[in-house]
Design goal:
Blueprint: E1 11-13, E2 16-19, H1 23-34, E3 39-42, E4 59-60, H2 69-79, H3 86-105, E5 120-121, E6 131-132, H4 139-151, E7 157-160, E8 163-170, E9 176-183, E10 191-196, E11 199-202, H5 223-230, E12 235-236, E13 241-248, H6 263-267, E14 271-273, H7 293-307, E15 312-315, H8 322-325, H9 327-335, E16 345-354, E17 357-359, E18 371-373, E19 378-379, H10 391-410, H11 432-442, H12 449-462, H13 472-493, E20 515-521, E21 527-533
Parallel strand pairs: 1-10, 2-3, 2-11, 3-7, 11-18, 17-19
Antiparallel strand pairs: 4-6, 5-6, 8-9, 9-10, 12-17, 12-20, 13-16, 14-15, 15-16, 20-21
Helix pairs in contact: 1-4, 1-10, 2-3, 3-10, 5-13, 11-12, 12-13
Length: 536
């Protein structure tokens, strides 16, 4: 299956096409260039408008006194609730410190203590201070700045901004050999074109816009994951959608991207309170307010449902110089009429991070030759059922470098695509809100067979509302619909509660489900599923 689009009106070529300009994509690009390969970097908005810049908390790495990769591994495995791929976790935590040092060598500036040492803090699920941060709560922005500065002026990198990757180009054997793109008028080319390459790397970030409330920017419509699915790649763990527990609550009618209140605020001493002013996390977990995200999100959701309230409260009034430590969060709160130094902050869970994605090996290779996936778009297995806080930027750094190394060592000859005779399909942009509301209601923090089946029925009904007008909004909503279907199907298969997947009809974690739900979408539009055991 492919999306309905016009025939390519122009062609460009590079050794490798990298789709996405976040930490995963930029790290891959820099390492590919170090091997002398030419790169076409495609980004949907402007170079610095991806999800990376919104990362507030920081990067987790075992760099502090007494900390070790083994301890980082232990915390990661606990957060992943038995579904982490232990080999992927070992790669992440052992190669992570050097990846961070390399980032610093490339110009990233992290906050330091009075003694001049890098300042490390804690976030949920971590038993040690191992989170590097920059600008207080602007770590992602600094990482993005440093990486973008490092690629600036490199003639071996062609950049196309405001471009949506539509579908993969494949040869007669199914090998990916490029992509079709639509470039909005402000880009370097207009309309639909094709980019030929010997390998394609998808690093398009998250899919948070599947839900009506999310911390993800508007560009996070999962385009790369949907592209990979239509190319025949497998996806795994897509039912594990992490809902950040503390997102600034606003009236649900406002929708769109919600301001995030970083876990680091709780790491600095903020506490959660219910509507009675009572702390409620201390009785639920040894780490209390700093418990793993899924546990905190579930308990907040329970408090909201039990007392029929739209949010709980975060008390950060005891944090000294809040506006200096968390300038971005302070500005967001003030813009919404809340002074966090004097007032309680209303917070509620919102869609934040996809722990699953396109299934890849330790070098980022998918089940389709020539196609690599990195960052939030990928399922490396490092996150399991619930990502440990601040492991996401680290994953982009570590696996981006591994992908570049694998491509440099195994770059095939350029093959030519065959023309897909399928006319393609497209859904109406008018169904976007219906998808989002249905997903938030039936496949959100809490799920059940009844709610999931209702959502799947809605999605099936919406699939009949097609469009014959190829444009950005239609391609995006078609991608969202495909990914929503995969999430619901995966959640229906997993008849247990584990990590960020909570089934009210199967509230316990079941050892029989110590396995991955792996899905595939074939050329005729049919879904298949298999289960992959996870080694303990």
């Amino acid at each position: 299956m492919k999306l309905l689009a016009g025939k390519p009106g122009w062609t460009t070529q590079a050794d490798v096409v990298v789709i996405g300009s976040g930490v995963a994509g930029l790290t891959t690009v820099l390492n590919l260039r170090a091997s002398g390969l030419s790169v076409l970097l495609v980004t949907k908005a402007l170079l610095d408008e991806g999800s990376t810049k919104w990362a507030q908390g920081g990067i987790a790495a075992a760099l502090g006194p007494g900390d070790t990769p083994d301890q980082h591994e232990s915390d990661t495995l606990i957060a992943g609730v038995g579904l982490c791929d232990i080999d992927a976790v070992k790669v992440l935590v052992t190669e992570g410190p050097e990846a961070v040092r390399k980032l610093i060598a490339r110009g990233a500036v992290f906050d330091t203590s009075e003694s001049g040492e890098i300042s490390l803090t804690r976030e949920g699920g971590h038993h040690r201070n191992r989170i590097l941060h920059a600008g207080g709560d602007a770590t992602g922005a600094e990482v993005s700045r440093a990486l973008l500065e490092a690629i600036k002026g490199d003639s071996g990198i062609e950049v196309i901004e405001r471009a949506l990757a539509i579908d993969a180009l494949q040869d007669a054997d199914g090998q990916v050999c490029g992509v079709t793109l639509h470039v909005i008028g402000e880009g370097t080319r207009d309309g639909v074109g094709q980019a030929l390459a010997k390998a394609v790397v998808v690093a398009t970030g998250g899919l948070g816009q599947v839900y009506s409330q999310t911390t993800n920017p508007s560009v996070s419509t999962g385009d790369g994951v949907a592209l990979a699915l239509r190319a025949g790649a497998e996806v795994a763990d897509v039912e594990f959608i992490q809902f950040h527990p503390t997102v600034l609550w606003r009236d649900t009618a406002e929708g769109g991207q919600q301001p995030l209140i970083s876990e680091a605020v709780r790491g600095e001493g903020a506490i959660l309170l219910n509507h009675k002013g009572e702390r409620f996390m201390a009785k639920k977990h040894e780490l209390a307010d700093l418990a793993p995200r899924d546990i905190v999100a579930k308990e907040i959701f329970s408090q909201m449902r039990q007392w029929n309230i739209p949010h709980v409260w975060l008390d950060a009034t005891g944090i000294k110089e809040f506006e200096v430590r968390f300038p971005t969060i302070y500005a967001s709160c003030m813009a919404n009429g809340i002074d966090p130094t004097k007032q309680l902050i209303p917070v509620a869970p919102a869609s934040h991070y996809a722990s699953g994605g396109v299934l890849v090996d330790l070098n980022g290779r998918t089940s389709v030759k020539g196609l690599y996936v990195c960052g939030e778009s990928a399922c490396t297995g490092a996150h399991g059922a619930n990502r440990l806080a601040s492991n996401s930027l680290l994953e982009g750094l570590v696996f981006g470098a591994r992908i570049a190394s694998d491509i440099a060592s195994n770059l095939p000859d350029q093959v030519l695509p065959v023309e897909d005779q399928n006319e393609g399909f497209l859904l109406s942009p008018a169904i976007k809100l219906a998808i989002q509301l249905s997903m938030s209601e039936g496949a959100g923090v809490m799920r059940s067979e009844e709610s999931l089946n209702e959502t799947l029925t809605t999605l099936n009904q919406l699939a009949s509302r097609t469009s014959t007008e190829p444009r950005i909004e239609a391609w995006e909503v078609s991608n969202l619909h495909l990914l929503a279907t995969a999430i619901v199907r995966g959640a229906l298969e997993r008849k247990e509660s584990r990590g960020s997947h909570w089934r009210s009809d199967f509230p316990e974690t079941d050892p029989l489900w110590h396995k991955r739900v792996v899905q595939r979408y074939d050329a005729t539009g049919n879904w298949s599923v298999r289960f992959a055991e996870v080694k303990p």
